[in-house]
Amino acid sequence: MRRKLAAGNWKMNGLAADLSEIEALAAAHPAPRSEVLVCPPATLIAQMAWKARGSAVMVGGQDCHARPSGAHTGDIAAAMLKDAGASHVILGHSERRADHGETDALVRAKAGAADAAGLVAVICVGETEAERDAGETLGVIGAQLRGSVPDGATAASTVIAYEPVWAIGTGRTPTPAQIAEVHDFLRAELGARFADAEDFRLLYGGSVKPSNAAEIFATSNVDGALVGGASLKAADFGAIIAALDAA
Known about the structure:
Layout: E1 5-9, H1 20-28, E2 35-39, H2 45-51, E3 57-61, H3 78-84, E4 88-91, H4 94-100, H5 104-116, E5 120-125, H6 129-133, H7 137-148, E6 158-162, H8 176-191, E7 201-204, H9 213-217, E8 224-227, H10 234-246
Parallel strand pairs: 1-2, 1-8, 2-3, 3-4, 4-5, 5-6, 6-7
Helix pairs in contact: 1-10, 5-7, 7-8
């Protein structure tokens, strides 16, 4: 049985004062059935890990460099995230792919670095609105999955997150049938490569909120969510966690 995962991506949001939300979240959900992960900006990882110590809340990074160290000003290595208290790292998010030109090959290299440092990689895939309208969704996602996930990936080291670019932060959400089509496709694609494909967790991300969480979590092959804005407040994210626990 795959244990479900509620992952929050704070993106470029959050100051030290906002860590009270983590304390509130941990207090409200001391023993959730699902795993709970929050990925704050790098400046808050160590502080958040300290605030979350002894609780069910895990802490992750939002990106890492493909190299373990070196002359890469402004970047952060996977081992540094681990040292700061992170257990996971988000890789290949559409905002990284679009804003920083990250390729599948680079995401794959970063995933290898994360694994070497003992971090679980949350690898993101997803199509743009133009690609969906052109009927290219599964082709685009299949290519991203093949290019971004290392051959040595396992269900223990890797989580896959489907985030349709057109639904991120827009308030728009695919229908359950559209989500199921992609998640079923991802499961089949993983099955062609990995012996433990049935154990990989597949998250849905893109305007997940308390009002639509239950419907999303009832969808085929959805094992949790990668949540953006709704993860910033304990009350909202807690409601999503409760919906996932009940699914």
